[in-house]
């Protein structure tokens, strides 16, 4: 049966693969018949099978309506389909930070050869303009699930989400908390206690390790708040999950976090190099934690941006754009988000 082919760089519980699973489920609800191939395995494969979405080893190009790669890494695997007359798009979950870190140019990754480039955040489009024609770029925000709203946890913990890595800034966060004398207990979701830093990490902090997306959402919702000292993000799912759950967020002042703070209440920014800025953010966060009225406003604002219904309405238009089946009068200006 003809349908879209989605190419995932892996099937881990990290942001881009989880986002692609959500997109595949939306396509299926829309009456499409998505097939997924992956460059590397992982636990998310079971979730595809539970959703009744095919994971394929081989694909007949004549059965593919369009191809969508989920990251820069999977673009090279998608581009050969273009030679066969199949439209090829990518939903890029990388910013310029990624290219600078790995030491390559976007020009080296085949982005100019894509028919359509989608990005979760608007700032990515601005960064990529020197490498991709603006009339081929569109914003597609993530669809973010969160079933919980401020459930009782029985203990006071602040969530920090993601694998332990330099980009996520967990070490710097601990340094800032120590310098600010913030007496809190962090709950590291998705990370194990790094062996090289055992002696320097206070014992009151908890490390939950790798969790399924469903369990991670519950742990985030049960937290008093969420904090991120990340050096770079595109559109942090865990922070948005916290916002939908009515939990305030203290986030490093980077473009992805700034975009959230501009549109959603109870999101506070700090300079990751400044203890004073962090202290000021902690004070605002502490004052916001018990405020249930503002929490409800925060949740509604986040859902207006990241609900499945909003995502699928946008996705329907973009599928038409990718497959060149727009009706007369449907233009990029209509489709472009703010």
Q: Descriptors for this entry?
A:
single chain, about 350 residues, Rossmann fold, 6-stranded parallel sheet, 2 domains, disordered C terminus
Q: Summed up, what is this model?
A:
This protein is of the alpha/beta class. The protein has helices at residues 15-29, 44-50, 75-78, 96-102, 122-128, 170-179, 213-221, 237-244, 255-263, 275-288, 292-306, 308-322, 332-335; strands spanning 3-8, 35-38, 54-55, 64-69, 88-91, 116-119, 137-139, 158-161, 186-189, 206-209, 225-228, 249-252, 267-270. The radius of gyration is 20 Å and the shape is globular.
SSE order and pairing:
Layout: E1 3-8, H1 15-29, E2 35-38, H2 44-50, E3 54-55, E4 64-69, H3 75-78, E5 88-91, H4 96-102, E6 116-119, H5 122-128, E7 137-139, E8 158-161, H6 170-179, E9 186-189, E10 206-209, H7 213-221, E11 225-228, H8 237-244, E12 249-252, H9 255-263, E13 267-270, H10 275-288, H11 292-306, H12 308-322, H13 332-335
Parallel strand pairs: 1-2, 1-4, 2-3, 4-5, 5-6, 6-7, 8-9, 8-11, 9-10, 11-12, 12-13
Can you walk through the features of this model?
This protein is 37% helix and 16% strand. The chain has 338 residues and is of the alpha/beta class. It folds into 2 domains: 169 residues, Rossmann fold (3-Layer(aba) Sandwich), CATH 3.40.50.2000; 148 residues, Glycogen Phosphorylase B (Rossmann fold, 3-Layer(aba) Sandwich). The strands form 2 sheets. The protein has a 7-stranded parallel sheet with strand order 3-2-1-4-5-6-7. It has a 6-stranded parallel sheet with strand order 10-9-8-11-12-13, sandwiched between helices. Strand 2, helix 2 and strand 3 form a beta-alpha-beta unit. The protein is globular and about 60 Å long.
């Amino acid at each position: 049966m003809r349908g879209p082919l989605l190419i995932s760089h892996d099937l881990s519980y990290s942001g881009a693969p989880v986002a692609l699973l959500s997109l595949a489920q939306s396509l299926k609800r829309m009456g499409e018949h998505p097939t997924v191939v992956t460059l590397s395995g992982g636990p998310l494969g079971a979730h595809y099978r539970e959703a009744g979405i095919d994971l394929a080893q081989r694909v007949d190009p004549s059965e593919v309506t369009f191809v969508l790669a989920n990251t820069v890494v999977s673009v090279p695997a998608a581009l050969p389909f273009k030679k066969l007359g199949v439209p090829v798009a990518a939903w890029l979950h990388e910013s310029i930070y990624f290219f600078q870190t790995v030491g390559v140019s976007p020009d080296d990754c085949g982005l100019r050869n894509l028919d359509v480039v989608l990005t979760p955040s608007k700032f990515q489009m601005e960064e990529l303009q020197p490498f991709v024609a603006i009339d081929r770029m569109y914003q597609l925000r993530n669809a973010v699930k969160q079933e919980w709203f401020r459930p009782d946890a029985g203990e006071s913990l602040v969530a920090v989400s993601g694998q332990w890595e330099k980009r996520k800034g967990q070490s710097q966060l601990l340094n800032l908390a120590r310098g600010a004398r913030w007496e809190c207990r962090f709950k590291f979701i998705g990370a194990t206690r790094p062996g090289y830093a055992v002696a320097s990490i206070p014992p009151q902090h908890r490390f939950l390790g790798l969790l399924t997306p469903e369990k991670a959402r519950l742990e985030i919702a049960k937290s008093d708040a969420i904090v991120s000292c990340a050096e770079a993000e595109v559109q942090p799912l865990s922070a948005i999950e916290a916002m939908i759950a009515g939990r305030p967020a203290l986030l490093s002042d980077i473009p992805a976090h700034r975009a959230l703070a501009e549109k959603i209440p109870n999101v506070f920014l700090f300079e990751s190099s400044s203890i004073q800025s962090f202290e000021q953010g902690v004070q605002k966060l502490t004052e916001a934690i018990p405020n249930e009225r503002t929490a409800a406003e925060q949740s509604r604002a986040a859902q207006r941006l990241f609900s499945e219904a909003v995502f699928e309405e946008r996705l329907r238009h973009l599928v038409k754009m990718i497959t060149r089946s727009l009706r007369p009068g449907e233009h990029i200006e209509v489709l472009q988000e703010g």
